[in-house]
Amino acid sequence: MSDRMPLARQVRSAVEDCPPREVPRRLCEVLSGGLPVDAVTMSLLTDTPSRQLLCASNEMATAIEEVQFTMAEGPCITAASEGEPVHLTDWAAGSRRWPLFAPALRERCPDIEAVHAFPLWLGDYVLGALDMACRTPGGMPQAAIEQAIEASHAVAQALIPAQRLLSAEDPAPPWEPADAVRAHWSDTHRAIGVVMHRRKISSETALALMRARAFATGRNLREITTDILNS
Question: Matching Pfam families, A to Z (predicted)?
């Protein structure tokens, strides 16, 4: 694939004749290779309790997703809810905007210098969001940001088959990394159901209690979910 091919075209080309289950991984690979970034994640329903992680390109990407999922705040959640790109390049300002997320991510991944998030618009609906992290101070240059914005529209179109898989019978779509995807989908929702039943509360309140427990104990939501399901 030519390096001169526009990134949006690379996205469209990469998923031609691609099985729906392989689409998120293929997209992460294209974005990681086409932009000056060190980690890429993508998720659907990003700013809702039904958030679904689709792909994390590496351990750094998984860490970003886990911190945002646990804290219920961060750049990709804001990008999805506001429908605009969000850029975390100033950590003092980031800590004021996301007082739980920014310090937690800084502690877990001190080499991350910037996080860029882009909403995935499909018509007048936001499907989810992309997160991209950089070790370079200041993050992506403006030209790369413009490429990412253009590519995000192609990504949204490419993810339609993955969105349809969410309503399929398989409770844990086989996306990567498998353990994190399962934690962000079937396991968490099973744990929410357990807490709802035990406490006779709504799903939103159950998830809030799980997140509060994670924050209070310094653990992530995946670990709290495991505790609940094993108890």
Answer: ANTAR, GAF_2
Question: What end-to-end distance do the CA atoms of the chain give, in Å?
Answer: 50
Q: How far apart are CA 220 and CA 12, in angstroms?
A: 35
* Residue 97 to residue 163: CA distance in whole angstroms: 30
pTM of the model: 0.80
The angle formed by the CA atoms of residues 102, 25 and 90, to the nearest 5 degrees, is: 20
| Tens-binned pLDDT, residue by residue, of the chain (231 aa) | 445 679 999 999 999 888 877 888 899 999 999 999 999 999 887 777 667 888 889 999 989 988 888 888 999 999 999 999 999 999 999 999 999 999 999 999 999 999 999 999 988 889 899 999 999 999 999 999 999 999 999 999 998 876 676 555 455 555 555 555 665 556 777 788 888 888 888 877 888 888 788 878 878 777 888 888 888
Q: What is the dihedral of CA 52, 56, 59, 63, to 10 degrees?
A: -40
